[in-house]
């Protein structure tokens, strides 16, 4: 469950390391986000930009203070799946998105939940090294 002011780890190579949720984008009146939901967040901590960084181009890099959209890929809160299994991760994590709801980054460094496939984030699922 991701609320306002929740800090999340950014697991892509967009340049952000930690982001803070400032808005949950949902149609129903619930004020929390779970796996597969979109949020608006501000970059709190970013990797230093050097000319030797490969992967994401300089135009795709984000800096501290940038306001971006993101999708939740992991939460600490237990999530029950339709088959009855329960899944829980060690941290809250997200992947940054552009205006067209496509990932900004070219690489994802950690595992993501398979619920993203049901919510049509197939590009993120294909970039991830493992889907749990």
Automatic annotation (TrEMBL):
| Annotated keywords | Ribonucleoprotein, Ribosomal protein
The cross-references to InterPro entries, in alphabetical order and at most eight, read: Ribosomal_uL14 (IPR000218), Ribosomal_uL14_bac-type (IPR005745), Ribosomal_uL14_CS (IPR019972), Ribosomal_uL14_sf (IPR036853)
Please provide, in alphabetical order, the Gene Ontology terms of the cellular component aspect for this entry. mitochondrial large ribosomal subunit
User: Which GO BP terms, alphabetically?
Assistant: translation
- Which domain of life does the UniProt lineage start with? Eukaryota
Q: Which GO terms describe its molecular function?
A: large ribosomal subunit rRNA binding; structural constituent of ribosome
Q: Return the SUPFAM superfamilies for the record.
A: Ribosomal protein L14
The entry sums up its family as follows:
Belongs to the universal ribosomal protein uL14 family.
Q: What does this protein do?
A: Component of the mitochondrial ribosome (mitoribosome), a dedicated translation machinery responsible for the synthesis of mitochondrial genome-encoded proteins, including at least some of the essential transmembrane subunits of the mitochondrial respiratory chain. The mitoribosomes are attached to the mitochondrial inner membrane and translation products are cotranslationally integrated into the membrane.
**HAMAP family of this UniProt entry?**
Ribosomal_uL14
What is the name attached to this protein's record? Answer: Large ribosomal subunit protein uL14m
Q: What is the lineage of its organism?
A: Eukaryota, Fungi, Dikarya, Ascomycota, Saccharomycotina
């Amino acid at each position: 469950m991701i609320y306002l002011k929740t800090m999340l780890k950014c697991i892509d190579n967009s340049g952000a390391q930690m982001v803070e949720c400032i808005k949950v984008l949902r149609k129903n009146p619930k004020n929390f986000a779970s796996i597969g939901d979109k949020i608006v967040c501000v970059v709190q901590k970013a990797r230093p930009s050097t000319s030797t960084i490969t992967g994401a181009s300089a135009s795709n890099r984000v800096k501290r203070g940038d306001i971006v959209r993101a999708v939740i890929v992991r939460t600490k809160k237990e999530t029950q799946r339709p088959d009855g299994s329960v899944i829980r991760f060690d941290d809250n994590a997200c992947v940054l998105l552009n205006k067209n709801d496509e990932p900004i980054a070219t690489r994802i460094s950690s595992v993501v939940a398979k619920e993203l496939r049901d919510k049509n984030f197939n590009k993120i699922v294909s970039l991830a090294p493992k889907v749990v």
